[in-house]
Write a structure and sequence with these properties.
By secondary structure, the chain is of the alpha+beta class. The protein is about 35% helix and about 35% strand. The protein contains five helices and five strands. Strands 1, 2, 3, 4 and 5 form a five-stranded mixed beta sheet that branches. It starts with a helix and ends with a strand. The relative contact order is 0.17.
Length: about 180
């Protein structure tokens, strides 16, 4: 009987350590995506300028207005001489009418923008957009690193950055000018 108690105690202790170790690993795997602020200062303005003119993201709307985008940066990665920037973009078409912004069409989506270096600086080479419908989650997993994917999933449903701030400035409207639906 004494041998049985020692074995049972050793087995229980081993199982307890295994369970505690597993729990610790699960709690520690909440990694943050890599976000290189220095790199973003270089490529962020290029991405910001390119998004409102990308015809996969924006389209001629009924207002015949201008598109504006605001971004929330998620991650940066270097791959084969290129840079991939993961972000959540909020883009809308606005027009000015009677001292207000009128908003027509819009897009709120995670994106991955690939940039390549050129003679005159960085240029947008490609913009990855997630698949609609049943393939959405799988496409996000392909587009982002695991920590980037988790950050995007955490952010879904939250209000995104507001492109109306830049639109008001561009249309020379006060910062509190209302935004009206079309």
């Amino acid at each position: 009987m004494p041998g049985w108690n020692r074995r049972w105690t050793a087995l229980s202790a081993g199982a307890g350590l295994l369970l505690a170790g597993t729990a610790a690993v699960l709690l520690v795997t909440d990694a943050k995506p890599e976000l290189d602020e220095t790199l973003l200062r270089e490529v962020g303005p290029v991405v910001h300028a390119a998004l409102p003119t990308d015809r996969e993201l924006t389209w001629p709307g009924p207002l015949k207005g201008r598109w504006f985008c605001a971004e929330r940066w998620v991650e940066t990665r270097h791959i084969d001489g290129a840079v991939r920037v993961g972000l959540i973009a909020n883009c809308s078409e606005y027009a000015r009418r009677d001292g207000a912004l009128v908003e027509s069409a819009g897009l709120h989506s995670p994106l991955v923008v690939t940039l390549t270096p050129g003679r005159n600086g960085w240029r947008v080479h490609d913009v990855d957009v997630p698949t609609d419908g049943a393939g959405h989650d799988a496409s996000l997993r392909r587009m982002f690193t695991q920590p980037g994917y988790e950050e995007v999933r955490r952010s879904m449903g939250e209000p995104g950055p507001d492109p109306a701030v830049e639109a008001r400035e561009a249309f020379r409207l006060p910062v509190d000018a209302p935004v009206l639906p079309r």
